[in-house]
Amino acid sequence: MGNCCDRPKDTYIRVSLPAVCFVWQIAMVVLFGVFIRYNEESDAHWPEYKKKQNITSDAENDFYYRYPSFQDVHVMIFVGFGFLMTFLKRYSFGGVGFNFLIAAFGLQWALLMQGWFHSLDYNTGKIYIGIENLINADFCCAGCLIAYGALLGKVSPVQLLVVTLFGITLFAVEEYIILNLLHCRDAGGSMVIHAFGGYYGLAISWVLYRQNLNQSKHLQGSVYHSDVFAMIGTLFLWMFWPSFNSAIANHGDGQHRAAINTYVALASSVLTAVAVSSLSHRTGKLDMVHIQNATLAGGVAMGASAEFMITPYGALIVGFCCGIISTFGFVVVTPFLERKLKLQDTCGIHNLHAVPGMLGGFISAIVAAAATESVYSKEGLVSTLGLEGKFANRSPGTQGGYQAAGTCVAIAFGLVGGAIVGFILKIPIWGDPADDNCFDDEVYWEESKARIMPLGTY
Amino acid sequence: MGNCCDRPKDTYIRVSLPAVCFVWQIAMVVLFGVFIRYNEESDAHWPEYKKKQNITSDAENDFYYRYPSFQDVHVMIFVGFGFLMTFLKRYSFGGVGFNFLIAAFGLQWALLMQGWFHSLDYNTGKIYIGIENLINADFCCAGCLIAYGALLGKVSPVQLLVVTLFGITLFAVEEYIILNLLHCRDAGGSMVIHAFGGYYGLAISWVLYRQNLNQSKHLQGSVYHSDVFAMIGTLFLWMFWPSFNSAIANHGDGQHRAAINTYVALASSVLTAVAVSSLSHRTGKLDMVHIQNATLAGGVAMGASAEFMITPYGALIVGFCCGIISTFGFVVVTPFLERKLKLQDTCGIHNLHAVPGMLGGFISAIVAAAATESVYSKEGLVSTLGLEGKFANRSPGTQGGYQAAGTCVAIAFGLVGGAIVGFILKIPIWGDPADDNCFDDEVYWEESKARIMPLGTY
Amino acid sequence: MGNCCDRPKDTYIRVSLPAVCFVWQIAMVVLFGVFIRYNEESDAHWPEYKKKQNITSDAENDFYYRYPSFQDVHVMIFVGFGFLMTFLKRYSFGGVGFNFLIAAFGLQWALLMQGWFHSLDYNTGKIYIGIENLINADFCCAGCLIAYGALLGKVSPVQLLVVTLFGITLFAVEEYIILNLLHCRDAGGSMVIHAFGGYYGLAISWVLYRQNLNQSKHLQGSVYHSDVFAMIGTLFLWMFWPSFNSAIANHGDGQHRAAINTYVALASSVLTAVAVSSLSHRTGKLDMVHIQNATLAGGVAMGASAEFMITPYGALIVGFCCGIISTFGFVVVTPFLERKLKLQDTCGIHNLHAVPGMLGGFISAIVAAAATESVYSKEGLVSTLGLEGKFANRSPGTQGGYQAAGTCVAIAFGLVGGAIVGFILKIPIWGDPADDNCFDDEVYWEESKARIMPLGTY
Question: How is C152-203 classified by DSSP, letter by letter?
């Protein structure tokens, strides 16, 4: 494992990492104490509330509508994203471990940030949380984990916590603008999660461009078993994506339809990703990079229109196109971006999240604009497009325009926010690795050692 | 990794694989466009439908009864089967990757085939799909994935897509005959999935017998970590098998009982598989092959009678016997089949699926024949055995006879269909590997390489 | 792999292991036949029962309230605990495989033992089981699997079955005393599962102290990929812990609140575990041991008070403190225990289960004592603290006292029971490995070999 004393001094994080973790965790405790309370469905007053609202069954508690989907989303965040990033031959600890750290911090900060914007009761000054808040907090983390994909192996855990702090903050703001002010529909987060997260990560990575990254070239590949580990991530993302896109959809047909649409779109992506992957090799061999990533593009792109009456056939077409575009991105666009734009994107989030997310936003614009009462029914149109309250007069066509506008807002937030955060990360106090030390777990992880008898007393 | 230019020309799949993927995926898009629509529970007209049917709660949408089980089944198909097939030292990519490809294509074709047989509305000519169709489509794929177990490492991805196309078609037909015409009960698919899939795969493998497979003998074993990867598959199959057998059972006690029966049968299989595995070794050591496979036999065999009042004690006995039979199969029968019948069964599906599936069918015949009104209650007997409509006059004894007949139909379909498909696969256009190239990912998968900087521009 | 003929004779388990498996499994069949039946929700009489009880919807079957959580718990038991114990470089088969064996046997015995204590109908002499019994059986196994963590690599599978037989028995008794006689609340089992299981394992390990364990020192570490495998276990435990703590909580707000509390407590543990891990290394590097284990401490400690109105902020504090204490335990206490107390704790269960479980019990005492009607509502207080029936007159303060007493009972049962079982295991008939053969799969597992062509007939 080499002599650890040769290591450059600036990856010393024994002060900064514990300090950031402790300070931020204490801040969370204080802020939760001031702001966060159980909502009426998770509070012990529920039996009273039930009576008051004439609810006859505990099965009407939102917990039972959403908990199975929540757990699936939870698996996607921690195992899905985490293992997808274990593919590097010597950065599996960092892939899955820092993913864990980002998400565990991010979800706490997200509960607060999203709470202030969406669940704050102005009378009491409290945020009342339930299962839907937990799902949204996980979603919020997804944005930062996507960004981590572009930075994998090139940053310190302290930098990642900074990326997360700002990422969650930006996310909550853009989400508020897109979902509340523009009143877009985005059940699966094509725009608010994927387009935002993708461009946020790309902008940071672009600012942090490393001229001499080829010095750690020998560590940038995968080995046989690290690619199998990454498939764990891929498959859990792939399998549970219907839950991701349906987790916060409307009860009843909304969740049902979102799951079906995502299921078929993903299936379609697999076939076109395999086809283009095979086409891109001299004798038709497949590339694990494409199978691990491009197969998921259909799920990303279905996000914003998952709840819509896109028809199973429409969902298949979305998956079909995005599987092709995403694989093409890995074959052609990522190398191009790196050579021409000086953009180093370790996991290829440009192809899996940024572009399919953007496309998903625009697809939702088209599908929303094409909505009619005959297809949705009167009531269905109102509830699916959310044309209620002060948006009751909005036509489907107008809604389509707002969907497109929302996508642009997400991208703008990602690019501008990412550029700013990138410059913050350039301050030389965060303990990031040298160019010849990237993609190496040895920098931030202790070597494996015996678990018992560590004091060598025998 | 050797010089890739030495490879025999006939594994060139750069034309055939993309062509098959694109053509079939486009066909899916067209056929979905013509035939597939949302059913009343996933359509935006659900609020209207709810009112018309006097349904008071969204919780009555079938989605909430079945979605958690669906996701468990989904995990079994993609992670369960996929990782169970990663045990070979150099065929883990093919194991999990081609499993992914088969299932992603298969489920689309299954939605159509099963839809035409089971969910077609003759007035509109449309197939209306909901969550139960997704579960059934996953089930349908399971049959083909079982067959893949016998072929693992010896066929090309193009051949696998052919196996899947015909497999799903045959499955839908035999399922229609068994479940609709013979009116058998088979909640967990002992006969329609496991017996059919098992014999289908064995018949194909028998036709494709390779005289000189010993030329790739050095690749047929596992390595330490590939066996650990396979345990991921085993455990997810084992844990979620109660969901598999209860996913499409009747609401209420049906699903509840199916889960309990499967849970205890599986537990029992583990102990007898361990016992026989230990007995079969000179000093009592355990064999990972048995632990990875035979522990699941109880779940397979409980499939057809999962919903019946077999009693927890009956389920334990089923698991007890099948754990023994399955392990015995791995120790004695598989080597025998190969030597005497020229049958090369890479994963031993004969012992895990074919035989326990067949036994499961016959067990269900006995249990059905023994059903009485005092045990089931009048209403319970009707709903559990499905003795309604034009089958209202069928006695439990007659139903038992039909269960046995259904098992035979499944086996016959598997053997005949598999033999025919095997001969189709012998046409030398599918790019299958040479005998000395089997069990080797290098044939169809690109070597691992750096993900960024692929153009070598530094 | 060395020459297997050199192995000491006493690891010969070809008689004892199959004998124990067969005898115990047959006993299970007989006892299930005598005692176990379906309860009213899983019996075919459910339609009748539903009418009699005026239940209008199948969704009221407890199956639908608890099955998703059950499956999550099931994953924790088999994949969570199983993979957490794969970290050793050459004991991954034993880690995941014996975990599988223990749990599969344990859950059957638990259904009986817990049934006799909790679900026995004195009129019919039968135990009526449903989904809640399955969850409790899984919980019961967790106690034994925790104990296995201390013994990992040092005992034979036969010994483990003995540990399980006695462990489940002791568990059922202490659980009966704590939950029924003392009437403690312990939804997530801080005391009955973690404190008991932890001290049970430690006491056994203390009795089985091996003077010369350093002879197998070279096998006590992890390798790179075995640590990644262990992260699979960690993450599935971490993600599904909210289901563990809410699985048998009260319907409605109880389950909802338990999930929220556990979710935030776990998030908090991650940050403080990372902080202390970094602090404990010279340059701030993280240790995989801490990330794999201490991050879970918050879930353990939240168990007993998961259902209480501890507030999200209170849950964060619990996670905060336990993350620190647990990591500190791995850094300082485990080495100390081994040097001074002759206690070899392979997985460090002292730090992950014993201490956080004990703390969880005492925390629940404080939280229960502080409960007021204004916070819980009158009805909520009664249902959350279980102050019904003959316990209706108990005040929250008294309940707090009983919670503390229950914790002490759990610890006492663990220590005394473990010591006795330890002495039983010292009888030299169980085939345990020699000191220089510990932590080595080769002792109980056959070497990997080709799966087809095993008879070498080519």
Answer: TTSS-HHHHHHHHHHHHHHHHHHHIIIIIIS----TT-IIIIIIHHHHHHHH
pLDDT at A457 over 80: no
Chain C closest-CA separation from residue A267 CA (Å): 25
Residue carrying structure tokens 């993280």? C286
Is C137 within 8 Å of C110 (Cβ atoms)? Answer: yes
In chain A, the residue whose alpha carbon lies closest to the alpha carbon of B82 is A235
Domains of chain A: 71-426 (1.10.3430.10)
Local structure of A354: helix, strand or coil: helix
Nearest chain C residue (CA) to B280: C14
Maximum Cα interatomic distance, chain B, rounded to a whole number of Å: 80
| C22 interfaces chain B, CB cutoff of 8 Å | yes
What whole-number distance in Å separates Cα of residue A75 and Cα of residue A73? 5
The verdict on C134 touching B (C-beta cutoff 8 Å) is: yes
Q: Are B452 and A334 in contact (CB under 8 A)?
A: yes
- The pTM of this model reads 0.96
A370 touches chain B (CB under 8 A): no
Instruction: From chain C, pick out residues whose CB is under 8 angstroms from the CB of B215.
Output: none
CA distance C1 to C5: 11
* Local structure of residue B283 (DSSP, 8 states): T
d(CA A150, CA A246): 27
Q: List beta partners, residue A121.
A: A126
HSE (side-chain half, CA atoms, 13 Å) at B274: 30
Is B373 near chain C, with CB under 8 Å? no
Phi, psi of C239, deg, nearest 5:
-65, -40
ipTM of the complex: 0.95
pLDDT of the residue at A10: 76
The reply to whether residue B453 touches residue A347, judged by beta carbons under 8 angstroms, is no
Q: How far is CA B183 from CA A37, A88, A212, B65, B373, in A?
A: 54, 52, 69, 24, 20
Size of interface A-C (CB pairs under 8 A): 263
Q: What is the pLDDT of residues B152-205, one digit of tens each?
A: 999 999 999 999 999 999 999 999 999 999 999 999 999 999 999 999 999 999
Question: For residue A170, which of A193, A189, A153 has the smallest C-alpha distance?
Answer: A193
